[in-house]
Amino acid sequence: xxxxxxxxxxxxxxISFTYSAxxxxxxxxxxxxxxxxxxxxxPGSSQYALDLEHFALSAEQNSSCSVEPGSAQDVSTILQxxxxxRTKFAVIKSGGHDLNPKFSSTPGVQISMARFNQxxxxxxxxxxxxxxxxxxxxxxxxxxxxxVSVVGARTTGIGIGGYIVAGGGYSYKTNQHGLASDNVVAxxxxxxxxxxxxxxxxxLVDRDLFFAxxxxxxxxxxxxxxxxxxxxxxxxxxxxxxxxxTEFASVSAAVLNYTSNNKDIKTxxxxxxxxxxxxxxIMANLFYDAPAxxxxxxxxxxxxxxxxxxxxxxxxxxxxxxxxxxxxxxxRGIYNTISHTAVTMNLVESxxxxxxxxxxxxxxxxxxxxxxxxxxxxxEAYHHGDTDTAYPPNRNENIHPMNIxxxxxxxxxxxxxxxxxRQTAASLQxxxxxxxxxASAKYPNYAxxxxxxxxxxxxxxxxxxxxxxxxxxxxxxxxxxxxxxx
Length: 486
Ligand SMILES: Cc1cc2nc3c(=O)[nH]c(=O)nc-3n(C[C@H](O)[C@H](O)[C@H](O)COP(=O)(O)OP(=O)(O)OC[C@H]3O[C@@H](n4cnc5c(N)ncnc54)[C@H](O)[C@@H]3O)c2cc1C
Known about the structure:
Vanillyl-alcohol Oxidase, Chain A, domain 3; binds flavin-adenine dinucleotide; flavoprotein; 3 domains; FAD dependent oxidoreductase; 14 helices; 8-stranded antiparallel sheet
């Protein structure tokens, strides 16, 4: 017994010694082991700065170095080095839009997928192969030439990698075609032991990995390529209307009218109740997948007097790129969420009240903006996939994910804002529960760090644990940040 304890102690001491002694050298080991397609960047270089850049400043950290692998083989080499040296905090970054600190940043080795930026359209199969380091804007732009598009993000700058792998991806086309993850046909992935594998959705033998990689987070390897379904794309109609907070009664009535009556799967809306520098404002994002909406469908929004309106027929790319989300890029930020199964006036009023309450309370703590986004989907949204996915765990529940966003400037306010984001979600959760509309699973891409795995994956959590243990017995992916199955 004493011998065992001494042995364990010896192992722990040697691992921590190896870790601290080796961190700096790992960058050199990687640099000398990868091919010319890939490169390591050191602090001070402009590429290093780009590789570390995130949407939210609070999600960034300085790393020992960054590495841009240019081939799946080099991702494999890098993962093996990191695993063997137990170099902690090696993290993957695709679009860098995860707001949770340490989920895609690290003091160790920052892996940037930026060189996985190739796109190949297959007109016959109606699919496109895309590199996991691309942002959705690039995919939409390159597919314009073929008059097709894919199910992807609703705003500019979002990475394909995190959007699909870390949550599944809600889109303006979700009512029509499901989550982005429902539209994945195959993936190329580097497993935690370095094996490069093509996982095909229609192959029974790949079923577990295909399930886990779509929404289960970065726990099962590094995805290098996705094959996605494409759909014919015409011009679309929509974008944003901004109203004064004084129009709350009309806008909330319009939201309820839409959620009660709309059955048209070509629609998508997001309605944000926000406080911007102390002022209550409301923003409606409207979408219709044709150059003009079906008559009357959005009239209740269009008839309300607005501060500004940017609605009209345009390309899908233009719709995505004219989103005003980059107004808060580069400041500090956090998301949190609850999920609900229906929209009640009580819930909408509570969102507005929470926004106003915290908006005025946190003014002196450098709050720029808080936003409470209602994102209603039709039940059809959850019945498009051919195979099951890590998220959502229950497709018979009509989940509406609510996005709660706080943006602020001062680092000294971090803990205040994180507390507020947690408290406000808890209050809304209680209200949804008392209204009988609380859904069982939270959307992982909106959930704040520390959210229990069971709250995200429900009855899928055990299966995901099991797959994780099979695929990654040495817990290489545990060296990265993110929601973990450990
Ligand atoms: C302004 C804004 C708008 C948004 N709009 C939407 C929206 O319309 N719909 C929606 O569903 N979500 C939306 N989100 C949430 C978004 O989907 C998540 O933040 C998502 O994780 C971002 O992906 P990324 O690749 O940019 O992030 P990153 O920060 O690069 O990565 C996020 C996570 O995924 C992991 N990861 C990244 N690439 C890979 C890979 N290749 N293999 C394995 N793991 C990987 C990372 O390690 C990290 O844990 C939005 C977020 C922001 C900030």
